[in-house]
Amino acid sequence: MDTRAGRYFRWLLFWQQQGRCCYCGEYVVLTYRPYDAARPYAATLEHLHRRADGGTGHPSNLAMACKRCNNTRGPIDWLSYASWRRDEF
User: Fold this and answer.
1) Taking the C-alpha atoms of 26, 76, 38 and 54 in order, what is their torsion angle to the nearest 10 degrees?
2) 3-class state of residue 69 by DSSP
3) Mean pLDDT of the chain
4) Are 37 and 45 in contact (CB under 8 A)?
5) Where does the chain show beta strands of DSSP type E?
6) Rounded distance, CA 22 to CA 77, Å?
């Protein structure tokens, strides 16, 4: 996905998700500055069905997550990880 499309989807998902991470529910910051993009609360695009498991870059497979959740999810499916992050177990 090129930069323009990635920025558009981050903005669209930021608006749809009311500025919250799809996993932990914390507010995220939508930024394009490299310094802020490295912070744990920066908005990132997340593939719900991992690309390593055959997921695609289709918009229906994308969500916005904070950088911390995006980096720590690993091989866990998205629904189980969201429940774990929200202490629903």
Assistant:
1) -120
2) helix
3) 88
4) no
5) 43-47, 62-66
6) 13
